[in-house]
Amino acid sequence: MKMHQVSDHCFAVINEKNRVCDANSGLINCGGGVVIDTQSDLAHARQMIEMFGKVWPAMPQRVINTHEDADHVWGNQLFKGAEIIAHRSVPERMKQVAEPKESQKLLHGVGRFLTRLVLKTLHPGLEAAGEQLLEDYNFDGIELVLPTTLFDTRYELNLEGKEVHLIYVGPCHQVGDTIIHLLEERVVFAGDVLFRQCTPMGWTGSYEKWFQCLDLLIELDPEVIVPGHGPLCGIEGAMEMKAYLQYVRDESRKCFDAGITSLEAAKKIEFGPYGEWRAPARLYMNVERAYREFRNEPPDAPWDSAATFDAIYQVAKAKGIEAEF
Questions:
Q1: 209-227: pLDDT as tens digits
Q2: 245/255 Cα distance (integer angstroms)
Q3: Between 20 and 30 A from 16 (CA), which of 39, 45, 99, 253?
Q4: Model confidence, pTM
Q5: Mind listing the pLDDT tens digit for each residue in 47-63?
Q6: Please, what's the b/e burial string for 49-75 (b: 16 or more CB within 10 A of its CB; e: otherwise)?
Q7: Which of 51, 45, 54, 137 is nearest to 82 (CA)?
Q8: Do 86 and 187 share a domain, yes or no?
């Protein structure tokens, strides 16, 4: 993890490995202090707090959760007494997708020899993802702490005269997707609307909605975008990710029309210039999302997590690369 100053009052903590759970966080160091997203486990959250403590001496009075995923909310419990702000959908969605027990069970399982062997036989992708997570994360002790201030479409903060606009843009990557725009400082905290130099993952929403969100990031014309995952960028980051999604959707259409399954399509479609991104085999999720749209399935159709990680694992093996999540 490394902290960067991105404007006069905005800071970002970047998780440089840029794999699953390596989420970024932000700080606005005025008006009582505002933290944006709280990391994937308590150790990373404490490290983030220590880093931000160098530029803001007190615990921040507010926290913003950009959406409901665990890697953006599992440090909430360390901000006792803080106002936690999120879109209205986020508390219920957190109960559905960010309950820590299953993730705790996975990491405990891959840490035991016999359990790991059984899991590797039944779900090799899930086991590989668990081993990767175990390198950096420990989910023990996490308690789900829900947002306390909820909004519908927009919410504004005035921090000592600085306007902070929370704009609801979901469902895109997740249901509760929110971006945070500081017009005066020309900074956007994008949450997982934007992945940078790593393959995006979308759990709900549609391609068209994601294109609209990326177009909005470009229209806002910030000098700096803090993505949910990956290094800092400008609007070129949104342009590159939109080009990737357009490429995958177009190639998926060809495969769908040819009667190829989404898994076989993901094995067949070339990574192209995006093969240098982290976790390129997550391509499977974007192909499957396209297939769901082609089949006219609802954008909030649930995913089988174990089967999804297994499919990503199979794509990596078919491509002759290391399985990375």
A1: 999 999 999 999 999 999 9
A2: 15
A3: 99
A4: 0.96
A5: 999 999 999 999 999 99
A6: bebbeeebeebbebbbbbbbbbbbbbb
A7: 45
A8: yes
